[in-house]
Structure formats: C-alpha cells, structure tokens
Amino acid sequence: MDDKFLLEVAKQLQGRYGCLQEIDQLTRETEKAFSRNDTVAARIFLKMRGEIMERADSYMERIEKLVYSLEDASEIRLLEALLKGRETAEALPEEYRPEAVMIISAVERSRNLLAKVILKDRAMNSRITGKESFYSLDV
Description:
Elements: H1 3-35, H2 39-69, H3 73-83, H4 97-129
Helix pairs in contact: 1-2, 1-4
C-alpha cells in the first residue's frame, strides 16, 4: 500500500459521495413532486435515483476490489478500519497520513449525508404508503 493506492481509494470515495449528493437532490425533488401530486415526475425522479444508487454501489465495489488486492492482511485490516471510521490517520506511517485524512473525511461526509437521505426517504415513504411503508415492516 502506498500513497497512490490510498489516493485512488480516496478518489473512489469522493465519486461515491458525489452520487450521494445527487441522490439527496433527487430525493428532495421526489418529495416536491409527491407533495404536488405529480406522480409522473416522482416516478422519473425515483428511476433516476435508482440509477445513481447503482453507480454509488459500483464505487463501493471498486473500493472493495482495491482493498482485497492488497497482499498484506494487516494492511487490509487497517484499510477496512479506515473505511469503517474505526481508525485514525495516525495508524498509518506519516507519509500516508494526508491520504488517510482524505479517506476518513470522505467516509464521514458520506456517512452523514447518507443518514440524512435515509431520514428523508423514511419520512417520504411513510407519508406516501402509510402502514404499508417499507420502513414499517418487521425484518
């Protein structure tokens, strides 16, 4: 694992964050469409949102491939911990800390934005479907 490798991980995380921003915007647009009873627009926004979710998933798949392309098990564990927000940049050698900070920052921003999108989605879903809401089902 070197700085270029970590920079590629950070780049993939940033791409995923961009997708999450688009999903957030489309969630707001979907809410607006439903509030004015424009089901055609709402369906279009939901379809677009689904496509962007697939793109976000592809970023995570590329990150996973990067992680598991490492040969050293301790490096894999360290990178997994960074990606889960369970490790700090200080866990890496000093020359890799700037990239580690980028990774940690992207993970945190993504986690916060995703939590906000889920809250909006849950509220919208409950308003539209009531007791039939996906979020009210026991899993």
